[in-house]
Amino acid sequence: TIKAELNKLDDAEKSNRKAWNIACHGEGNEDLWKIRCLPGMLRLFERKEQPDSIDHYLKLGNKLLQRVPSNSIAAIGFIQSRAATETNRKNYARALKDFHWLRNRKTGTEPKTLFTQMARCYDALGNPKLAYTYMDSARMWTDTLAQHNLTQQMAEFNVKYHTQEKELEIAHLQQEQLEHQAFLLKASIAVALLSGLALITLLTLRHKKRIAEKKIELLKQENELNSARRYIEGLEEECKYFAKELHDGIANDLLGLQMKIETSASKGNEQELASLVSKLRNNVRNISHELMPPEFEHLSLDQILDRYAAKLTENTGIEVSYHPTENNASRHLPNETAYELYRIVQELTMNIVK
C-alpha cells in the first residue's frame, strides 16, 4: 500500500502478489489471510486502471466474505475498500449499500468520512435531499467532534492549570520550607555565636581570675618577703643594739674592772683573776663583733671577710684564707645584702669548725 501511494506500482504489485501467495499457502485460516490482502490489491489495480483485475478480486472477496465472520477486522476492511472502489467506479448504489452496512454495524469507521461519502453518492444518484441530510450530519459530527476536541482541550488545559496550581503550591511550600530552614540556620548560627562569645567570655574571666590569683600570690609572697625582710632587719637592729651594748657597755666595764685589778692586785691570785677578766672581756668583744662587726660602718665585705678568716685561723688553728672579688666589687653591695652574705659565710665556717 505504501509503495502504491508512492506511485511505485510495479514494486507494490510484487509485494501484494508475494503476500497473496503467502496467504494462499499459509497455515491456519487462509480465508482471513486472503481477504486481508484484497484492500491493497484493489487500491493497486485502481491506480493501474485495470478494471478486469478489480472485478476479479471483488468477486473473490465477495466469496471469501461469506466464509469469514462479518464482524472480523479483515471483513470490515474489505467492505470499506469495496465501498470506496465502487464509489470511484461510480457504482453509487452498491457503494451506498456498503456504507449503510458500515453505519449500522458501528464498525469504527469515522462518521464524518462515512456521511460525506454517503452524501456524495446520494447527490450522484439525484437525491439532493438525502445528500443534504447526510452532509449536514457530517457537518454536525464535525461540530460535535470539534466540540469534543475543544472539551478535551479544555480538560487538558484544566489539568495543566490545576497541575500548575499544584506546582505553584508545592513551590510555595518549598519556599516556606527553605525560609524555615534558613531561619533555623540563622538561629543555629546565632546560638553558636552566642555560645562562642559566652565561652570566650568565660575563658577570659578564668584567665583574668588566674592572673588575679597569681598577682595575689605574688603580693602574698612579696608581703611575706617584706615581712621576712623586716624581721631580719629587726634582728639586725637587735644584733646591732646588743653588739653596741656588749662593746660599749659590758666590755668597757670589764676593761675598767681589769685595770683596777691590775693596779691594786699583788702577784698572787689577783693576777690570775685579772687574766680571767681579760679573757672574759675578749670573749664579750668577739661575741659583739660576731653579732655585728663594727667594720660594716666603714669597710667593704671583702675586707671584713678577710679579717674574719684571719681571726678564725688565730682562734681555731685551722688555716683559713679568703679570696676577695675582682676589683673589690663587694663594696657596691647594700649593707643588708653584705650582712646576709657575712652571716652565711659565718654559719658555714662554724659548721666546718664544729
From TrEMBL:
It is an enzyme of class 2 (transferase). GO terms for biological process: phosphorelay signal transduction system. Its EC number is 2.7.13.3. Residues 161-238 form a coiled coil. Signal peptide: none annotated. It catalyses: ATP + protein L-histidine = ADP + protein N-phospho-L-histidine. One of its GO terms (molecular function) is ATP binding. InterPro entries: Sensor_HK_TwoCompSys. This is histidine kinase. It comes from Phocaeicola dorei. The lineage of its organism: Bacteria, Pseudomonadati, Bacteroidota, Bacteroidia, Bacteroidales.
